[in-house]
Amino acid sequence: GESVGLHLPTLSVQEGDNSIINCAYSNSASDYFIWYKQESGKGPQFIIDIRSNMDKRQGQRVTVLLNKTVKHLSLQIAATQPGDSAVYFCAENMIQGAQKLVFGQGTRLTINP
Amino acid sequence: NAGVTQTPKFQVLKTGQSMTLQCAQDMNHEYMSWYRQDPGMGLRLIHYSVGAGITDQGEVPNGYNVSRSTTEDFPLRLLSAAPSQTSVYFCASSLYHLGLAGGPYNEQFFGPGTRLTVL
User: pLDDT digit string (tens) for A61-90?
Assistant: First the structure.
């Protein structure tokens, strides 16, 4: 079975607000995590990644937080825009292994005007 | 660069038919993978390759075969299609970075997908 899951299947936020999407993982040996964005009818698109030796990593309007103690990952999107509407997936990987990404179920983010 | 391309975009098969889903990348990536995505689900790894001539099984390999004769191409074969194989199939490729500060370390580029229906 999947070792990565998401707390909420859907999330609605107002345009301009910040969004937080959560993810739980169960494989304590995973040492690399990735967030993907998937728009309708398209393949997943890389957003941001983080290694297990980090707690936080920031990109453009996005921040990923990793809490290894409780095996929790979150994606924060600042000032959400209509273009942020999509399904967001977290995925985990073991760096020492091959590219065996394990994906979570996904959270659908809807931006309300 | 065209990135990762997949053909066909849509396919309908009858149970028992065979077909090959094509995947190609022009980024000289070592790693290529096939995933399937069922409705409301995340992606599940079918097979992957770490380079030409090397392939291995992922999470859900049964019913699928792959080969990697060149760096660019990674076809996925269904030998005898079953309704349970109705899904959207994504191919991905990446360079695998280790130890590079700042990352990304394993950025996979996905193709647009092939929507397969097996009747």
Answer: 999 999 999 999 999 999 999 999 999 999
How far apart are alpha carbons A19 and A109 in whole angstroms? Answer: 8
Residues on chain A touching B107 (C-beta within 8 angstroms)? 34, 46, 49
Nearest Cα of chain B lies from the Cα of A69 at a distance, in angstroms, of: 23
Tell me phi and psi for residue A2, to 5 degrees.
Answer: -75, 140
The verdict on B59 touching A (C-beta cutoff 8 Å) is yes
Contact B42 A95 (CB under 8 A): no
Q: How far apart are CA A42 and CA A64, in angstroms?
A: 23
CB B93 within 8 A of CB B66: no
Contact at 8 Å (CB) between B87 and B38?
A: yes
Q: Provide the pLDDT for residue A110.
A: 95
